[in-house]
Amino acid sequence: MQSSSRPLFPAVESPIELVGQTPLIRLRRIAADLPESVRLYAKAEWYNPGGSVKDRPALNMIQTGEKQGKLTPGKIILDATSGNTGIAYAWIGAALGYKVKLALPANASPERKKILTAYGVDLVLTDPALGSDGAIEKARALYAANPDLYFYPDQYSNPANWQAHYHGTGVEIWQQTEGQVTHFVTGLGTSGTCMGVGRRLRDYRPDIQIVAMQPDSPFHGLEGLKHMATALKPDIYDPSLPDLNLEVSTEAAQNMVKRLALEEGLLVGISAGANVVAALQVARQLSSGVVVTIFCDGADKYLSERFWTES
Ligand code: PMP
Q1: Of ligand 1's atoms, which has the minimum distance to the CA of residue 155?
Q2: What is the three-class DSSP state of 240?
Q3: Cα(294) to centroid of ligand 1, in Å?
Q4: How far apart are CA 184 and CA 236, in angstroms?
Q5: What is the pLDDT of residues 70-127, one digit of tens each?
Q6: Among positive and negative, which fits the CA dihedral 195, 232, 299, 308?
Q7: Which CATH number belongs to the domain containing residue 270 in this structure?
Q8: Ramachandran assignment for 305, one of left (phi > 0), alpha (psi -120 to 50 degrees), beta (any other)
């Protein structure tokens, strides 16, 4: 008996071919209080081989670097990342035969460090008090000291980051909603997802509503996201693109992560929970519409966090 009526994925020559084309999942139970004419969907980015939305920009930055002659055999891929982009560089580097060196705050979770080490990454641990900005400064200094040794994609200022979402994620959302998407809601980290998907959906539909979500405090627990007022602003971030900015607390995001597991059967990461909090807030204002958000990653890297057992 076939387990699903979906067409079967053809065999691939490399995991590289499996980046993108992730499922779009309707959230019915979480959105049960909404009218039937308001639909809420989330794009399950843990279906990428590295388990997160960041496989898309990492692959595009690497392939663009190769095309531009900036990444050649023997060079080391260097960047600053507290997590998912690093995991993406790590497996893509291994699959393509490049060494990878990453600066990350020393307090990054043990799961993450183990994953990166398993892929053979050289980790440079930076002062946790300086957060992700400390890691960025370290990567910049390493690159400046030896530019010929490294390929430094610099995800915060590399247009290939948002362009991965412009050519991939945004097109997929349009096709998967059959052009019915009215609102796109997502959190800001490098802002690549928001900028790329936002620009693509606006091309398709100029009245699309783009909603950018941020943590409500600089001292948040929403890994992968930035409190823009206090962080180093990414060069690729254009604050004029979103129609609306919302803030979400760490506690609200954690509660939503628990609800998504219990009510939808979806075990997602914390920024994914925060995205759903913001997307529901948007959806509750509507009498009709199709609201799409992103499940940036799954919960596996966050299982040691305390909130799971706190009520
Ligand atoms: N959530 C998670 C878990 C992430 O790793 C990232 C990437 N930093 C984001 C959200 C934000 O995505 P972007 O960098 O495209 O703004």
Answers
A1: 14
A2: coil
A3: 10
A4: 18
A5: 999 999 999 988 689 999 999 999 999 999 999 999 988 888 899 999 999 999 999 9
A6: negative
A7: 3.40.50.1100
A8: beta
pLDDT digits (tens, 9 = 90+) for 191-237: 999 999 999 999 999 999 999 999 999 988 888 899 998 888 999 99
Q: Model's pTM, two decimal places?
A: 0.96
What gap in Å lies between CA 44 and CA 60, rounded to an integer? 19
Question: Are 200 and 118 in a shared domain?
Answer: no
**Mutation pick for ligand 1 pocket among 193, 200, 238 (CB with most ligand atoms within 8 Å):** 193
Question: Domain for residue 160, yes or no?
Answer: no
Query: Residues with Cβ < 8 Å from 141, sequence gap 6 or more?
Result: none
If you average pLDDT over every residue of the chain, what do you get? 95
Residue having the nearest C-alpha atom to atom 9 of ligand 1: 224
Whether 107 and 178 map to the same domain: the answer is no
Indicate the number of domains in the chain.
Answer: 2
- Checking ipTM against 0.95, whether it exceeds it is yes
Instruction: Please tell me whether residues 47 and 63 are part of one structural domain.
Output: no
